[in-house]
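WARN no homologs supplied; continuing
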Amino acid sequence: MERNVSSTLNSNFLPTQAAPHNTTIDINATVKPFSVFDGCDHQAEGILFDLVMQCINFTVGIPANILVIAILIRNRKEPTTSDIFLGCLAFMDIYFSSMTPFHLLNLYHWQSKDMWSAMKFAYGVKDTTAPLFLSCICLDRFVAVLFPIMFGQLKHIKYRLGLTVLVFCLTFAYSAAKMAGGLPNFEKVFTGEVLAAFTWMIVCNVSIMWALKKSRGAGKDQMHPMKKKAFKMVLSVLCIIVFNYLPPVALFPFEDHYHPDLFRCYVQPVCFAFLNISSTIQPLVYLSRLERLPFLSDACVKKCCPCVYVGNNKTPPAQNPPA
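OK structure emitted
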């Protein structure tokens, strides 16, 4: 049985109807009932943890990502170069998070093979779009800070559109292969992808922070306010990348060293829970960096987060951050 690389839920809970139709089955044979804890009935803590993270994505992540898209549309007259990547990432996170109730219904009630295939496709989308679009964002910032002349020459949106199309092609190819199943060692594709993406994002963000910290004015000990703001932004993104991607990066390459049940019931679902919750963490981090939320009144912000409101009032008029 294929082991899905997005969650233990994606691999171990195939409906019993999945047997080939041309296979002769003894009518007296005992058919194993479909269970959300298939194979992990007495070790369900990791699977429950993953389910909780997906429910948080549905209740918090979807509104947050919708707000991100609304803000990007509102600011379309003065966009930053990474907006297209942010918008696509938010849209795909909404799609992935919206599948959670269908997933739960299918696990406990429908047990439909077609719905199961749709879920595998959705998990393939999550496996691919998050690391690839984040890598594109890191690449954009890396070139802007370390190679500003080249960045000016490559600032046209056609280059970002080309990268976006490439990411979508890779995403749909991977998701279709995942949905079809049957490919030997297919799970190794995700392990290689996440390792490469994680390494690239760490290198980019560390290089950006090092360059910003070194680029102080002559004879000045303090960093320029805009560069200091960019430094804090990149640092926060780096922390999120480490939080979401370090568990699978650190544990998945050593899969053969774990007992199969331990890996299937604990290591895999917990690691992918950290990946899945990025659908909520990423938009919240983006929203937290804004001077104010354009769709909320100052009175509402003051009532909900008085400390943020006071801090923003002390901040000078907003300027466009560096690309």
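Residues 291 and 312 are 6 Å apart (CA to CA).
OK
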